[in-house]
Amino acid sequence: MIGRIAGVILHRAMDHVLIDVRGVGYIVHVSPRTASNLPPVGEACALYTELVVREDLLQLFGFPSLIEKEWHLLLTSVQGIGAKAALAILGTLGPEGVSRALALGDWAAIKAAPGVGPKLAQRVVMELKDKAPSVMAMGGALTIDTGPADDVIEAPEKPAAKPAKRPAPAPKTNFTAEALSALTNLGYAPAEAASAVARAADDPAATDTAKLIRTALRLLAPKD
């Protein structure tokens, strides 16, 4: 199983990329979203991959992060959703958009992907709405690759002093995963918790895990 490809880009297109790995060229199918974010020809890149094996064909599909690969695997578990259809859904919505659409039962968002009709989109939502929270909960634990690091570069003996920088905010995916875990630990059903977290994430004030949890809890509170 080929789980990751790291090398130099020889050719780029909107639906695939050719990567040279020590003299061997691998064609990796990607979504237009992923393709647009890849470096230019001649530069290094790294993609997590899934190898799809058929009787007469071997295809590699590439993803910039492990969480996106997990969403692709989940989508292809639905009858009628092949590897390319799943890639189209991810390319249209992105991993966060897919998680939100499944959590909220928004099949119209799934239908926006090329080649996915309304019946198939409804099937995706119906079959995955209870499975999606498990992938959403992975968001904070899975790493996101920033590229190959084959060469070790030694630091200078006396590095120049740099001004202190504020720490970068944690990715919102981490907030979502942590909030989902907290709500399920409180006894809420995974699908119910996922829906509340997805809705709460739209609140501009939900800028960290604690605020996201509080907002979601308000949405889950019984209405008078």
Describe the structure in your own words.
- Strands 1-2-3-5-4 form a five-stranded mixed barrel.
- It contains nine helices and five strands.
- Mean pLDDT is 84; it is low at 144-170.
- It has helices spanning 32-36, 66-75, 83-104, 107-111, 118-128, 132-136, 172-185, 190-200, 209-220; strands at residues 4-12, 16-21, 24-29, 44-53, 58-63.
- Helices cover 42% and strands 17% of the residues.
- The protein starts with a strand and ends with a helix.
- Helix 2 (66-75) packs across helix 3 (83-104) and helix 8 packs across helix 9 (209-220).
- The chain is α+β, with helices and mostly antiparallel strands.
- The chain folds into three domains: 4-63, OB fold (Dihydrolipoamide Acetyltransferase, E2P) (Beta Barrel), CATH 2.40.50.140; 66-134, DNA polymerase, domain 1; 172-220, Helicase, Ruva Protein, domain 3 (Orthogonal Bundle).
- Strand 2 and strand 3 (24-29) form a beta hairpin.
Helix run count = 9
- Sheet of most strands: 5 strands, mixed, barrel
Structural shape: globular
Low-confidence stretches: 144-170
User: Beta fraction of the residues?
Assistant: 15-25%
Proportion in helices: 40-55%
CATH topology of the largest domain: DNA polymerase, domain 1
Rg (CA only): 20 Å
Q: Class of the largest domain in CATH? A: Mainly Alpha
Widest β-sheet, arrangement of strands: 1-2-3-5-4
| CATH level-4 homologous superfamily of the largest domain | 5' to 3' exonuclease, C-terminal subdomain
Alpha-carbon distance between the two ends: 54 Å
Domain module count: 3
Tally of strands: 5
> What integer is the average pLDDT?
84
* Content-based structural category: alpha+beta
Subcellular location: Cytoplasm
Keywords: ATP-binding, Cytoplasm, DNA damage, DNA recombination, DNA repair, DNA-binding, Helicase, Hydrolase, Nucleotide-binding
GO molecular function, one term: ATP binding
Domain Helix-hairpin-helix DNA-binding motif class: 73-92, 108-127
